[in-house]
Recover the amino acids of this structure.
């Protein structure tokens, strides 16, 4: 007797996904897009029982309201590593596993932190504008403002997860002194743990934020931390905008309380404030720390590999919950 083939699992896509993921996802699975429906919750109330999995992006995530409308949900596969837009508690309560692209993007996010650090310290963007504007020819040699030495400087890393450890490891190539702040010391790493964030800021030339977003770290970097970083300290944020009190940061930049900031993430991105766009001594990037051709392709593949592993073998390649 031949058994009828199992129907392809149905996925709910909760927000837009890059074509390099959406296309192969559609080729392998039956995918429906929640955001195509003008009243998504009403539609889901009628149709939600059909979905076995969610495919989402870490940047947009989805709201906990969806979960009671998805009684057959088995798994969530997210493009990215951030958990701040994913209803972790509600998933945990239902015992639904979450996969992210953890491990795939660590190098590129760390590289982006370094790109900001070096560009800030050596004034790369200002220097480019100076040469292009013709100002160099007018001023003559040796008039461009001096940068800051990176080799041998002091690096503070806030958050020593997988990406934080890559950021710290890269510093060995620049003979930097590295210390880190996290809730608990991380076992087996060669860098000094500093439990007091203000003390770490005071002792850093470059303070790199790569901690998880969410309520637990909201405004972790506030006015006292910025004051401790001081007029020779640079702030680099490749974590989440919410980790920094943006009003305090704008004030610190305007008053020269810190040397400058390199930011890949913001409050209310992509519609960041006019004040932030005009802030002095800042380098701003449009949340692209993981955005290289190689890594974005690997992330798309990992979202699919996690779903395949779940529906074929009941396991995940990179579980996050
Ligand atoms: C991530 O992986 O969380 C990126 O920051 C995209 O949101």
């Amino acid at each position: 007797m031949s058994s009828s083939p199992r129907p392809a699992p149905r996925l709910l896509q909760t927000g837009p996904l890059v074509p390099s993921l959406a296309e192969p996802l559609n080729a392998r699975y039956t995918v429906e897009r929640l955001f195509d429906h003008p009243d998504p919750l009403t539609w889901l109330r009628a149709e939600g029982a059909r979905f076995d999995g969610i495919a989402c992006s870490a940047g947009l995530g989805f709201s906990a309201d969806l979960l009671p409308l998805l009684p057959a949900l088995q798994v969530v596969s997210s493009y990215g590593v951030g958990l701040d837009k994913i209803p972790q508690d509600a998933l945990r309560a239902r015992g639904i596993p979450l996969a992210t692209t953890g491990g795939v993007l660590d190098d590129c996010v760390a590289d982006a932190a370094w790109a900001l650090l070096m560009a800030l310290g050596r004034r790369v963007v200002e220097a480019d504008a100076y040469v292009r504007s013709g100002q160099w020819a007018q001023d003559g040699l040796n008039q461009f403002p001096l940068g800051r030495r990176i080799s041998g400087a002091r690096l503070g890393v806030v958050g020593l997860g997988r990406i934080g450890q890559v950021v710290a490891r890269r510093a060995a190539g620049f003979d930097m002194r590295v210390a880190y702040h996290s809730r608990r010391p991380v076992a087996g790493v060669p860098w000094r743990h500093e439990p007091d964030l203000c003390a770490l800021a005071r002792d850093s030339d470059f303070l790199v934020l790569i901690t998880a977003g969410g309520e637990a770290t909201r405004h972790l970097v506030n006015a006292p931390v910025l004051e401790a970083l001081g007029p020779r300290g640079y702030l680099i944020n490749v974590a989440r905008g919410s980790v920094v009190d943006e009003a305090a940061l704008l004030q610190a930049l305007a008053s020269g309380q810190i040397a400058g900031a390199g930011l890949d993430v913001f409050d209310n991105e992509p519609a960041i404030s006019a004040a932030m766009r005009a802030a002095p001594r800042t380098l701003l990037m449009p949340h692209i720390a993981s955005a290289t051709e190689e890594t974005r392709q690997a992330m798309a593949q990992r979202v699919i590999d996690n779903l395949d592993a779940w529906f074929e073998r009941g396991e995940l390649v990179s579980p996050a919950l």
Notes: The longest strand covers residues 53-57.
